[in-house]
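Running log. JK asked me to keep both predictions on one page so they can be read side by side. First protein, sequence followed by its tokens:
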Amino acid sequence: MNILAIDYGTKNLGLAICLLGITMPYGKITNQNTSDVIKKISEIINEENINKIIIGLPLNNFDKDTETSLLIRKFSDELKDNIKNIEIIFLDEKNSTKESISLLKNTGYKNSKIKEQKDSLSAVNILNRYLGSNNGC
């Protein structure tokens, strides 16, 4: 099974994929226009034969929706309307970006590289959380 993970942000969407059991960052998409983002995700789905999408959902400390999670749910609905036959799963993404930034800092990345890499690394974190609870891809 090939899986695409998305760390949704109002500026960028970080992406990660799991292909043939290997998890890797897949870059980011600038979030300027929802229809363009959906088009790019559709292209990735076709190019990489994606079967499932995992979307990070930032819930609050009481596991309730936040302003951002409501935006993500709206985005997901639009994605479902345009991409058929792909299962979309939400996964609580608490601290995924903080963990990514911390990891990048600890490995010696400079601030400019951290800014460039944090979105896709956050998507990797989301994907790894999913895979850890579901026995891989």
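And the second, directly underneath as requested:
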Amino acid sequence: MSDSRLPGFYKLELEERQALLRERFGMTDDELATLLDGGALDFARADKMVENCIGVFGLPIGLGLNFRINGLDRIVPLVVEEPSVVAAVSNMAKVVRDAGGFEGDADPPLMIGQVQVLESPDPTAAVLALTQARAHLLARANAVHPNMAARGAGARDVEVRRFDGPYPMLVVHLIVDCGEAMGANAINAMVEGIAPLVEELTGGRVRLRILSNLADRRLARARCAVPFDLLSGNGYEGAEVALGIEEAWQFAEVCPYRAATHNKGVMNGIDAVAIATGNDWRSLEAGAHAYAARDGQYRSLTRWTRADGALHGSIELPMAVGMVGGSTQVHPTLRVLRKLLNTETGAELGVIMAAVGLAQNMAALRALATEGIQRGHMSLHARSVALAVGAVEAEVDEIAAELVRRGEVKSQVALELLLARRGQKTA
């Protein structure tokens, strides 16, 4: 992997950025053109992907720079419209890089498919029958996707959960090793395939047959340790910044109202990588937030503490992502972005995404604990405001800079500045 440090990349003109990508990644002219044509997804193809299609929507592609994860440099593609995300993760990745980089690991790609059983006349006997038929159920499931089993993946185990009370039911969990795929389609087909046998064994009535997005057996983790001196800047001592980040994390750990916003920031980075790699960001959101409430209270997905002169950060969350299947074979831009990422396994991708989420969270907490979130957002948001009132590219930077200087990043002020620059009067 080439060096993920690209100092001053944001200052380069488009042609210079493309030349660098051509040199570092061996990108062809066709691949570079794919990144510039608004998504490289023509209407004919888009029309086959969704119903009632009327067009194609484009989003900016940015590069998360400076990442070093498990000793390897990573340049991370991010598809996101929020201005601060790319800058934030890149800045924090540099800080962590100077401290040795991120470390991370991921669980095997095990997912759960669920079969709901209602009206079983003897739940105790049904649980026993399902347990004793484990091998038969697994064989039936793997027969649905023999190629998956041939690749070393497939159904691995069967578990049974019993719910009594106002809504009595049995729920059969089919544990599936998804290999390099996210696995949703395969799991759904497998639980459909075993449903008749489940009904036969339980004497009940099967209703839902579908995967669970709480992928708590497919977790990814990332961690870092940053000496206090690397956190200093903008008039703040490193130890002071570390204390502020730890106290900000404590707020999210005890208060669900804060935790929701805290975790939204984590997912800002993770979702951007998911979109850039063709993975299901809605699934990741659902799993992450459910996991955050696993002990009965919604809490932070990250942890920040001080010890031995350093700030220690960690993250753990479900990471059901894959490198094959889904839209990966349909959307042409994804192939190019995956070339930038330079990884072949879903486990590696999960660790990268966890590290991005941790970096994004670190950036947000650092801003909140020091100058406040608005100041950090202001200069980046100002450009969007300038564009929104009609400024063209040559006018945007000048108007944005004046908005920030005045401390009034507002549409009306931006419009007045734009009209003044063009020698026009405000209506």
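Observation for JK regarding the second prediction: The domain at 9-105+219-371 is CATH 3.90.770.10 (3-hydroxy-3-methylglutaryl-coenzyme A Reductase; Chain A, domain 2).
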